[in-house]
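Continuing the series of single-chain predictions for the mutant panel. This is the parent chain; the variants come on the following pages.
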Amino acid sequence: MSTPSPLHPLRAAWQLAWQQRSLREKRLLSMAAVVLLLATTWNLALAPALRTWQEAPAQQAHLDAQTQAMRQLQAQAKGLQKPNPISRTESVQWLEKSLSTLGPRAKISVQGERATLSLDATTPEALARWLSMARERALALPVQAQLQHGAPQAAAQVAAQANKTPKPVDKTDISALQNAPLNDVVLRGSLVLRLP
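Parent structure:
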């Protein structure tokens, strides 16, 4: 013996209601069901596809622009990976012309494939900028550095005292150099650069 379906009473009620309708009402309800079915089909299947089809050219143009921008960035990256060849003469000329950014007493001497840069009272920021530009424009890379730091005023006092007396510099003078504010620090010494 089978159990009755829970939908059986609903189906029976629907059939009874349908049979009680006139022919005109049945036609109107059928037409309403067809219109509802068409509207549902339009909203769920056709309208999204039509919208996608209409928006596709604009999206394609946007993607093409992004692709072009990415290709330009790729070309720039490849250009940075392979630096333009530069002669040693051009490299040395650039290094000599740019020395003024390191202070009036900066000097450079070239011997073979190496250039020795002598510094006196150069700020760390100026040296960092100069080294970055030397790497990019002159293809010169630092291979050795012997640098000392000091404060401009404290260094002048130490030098003056050293010129007056033959004795070594006092520890208090050295601590003045070590405790100088960072923005007052200058560098002295030499750097050896490898030329292209």
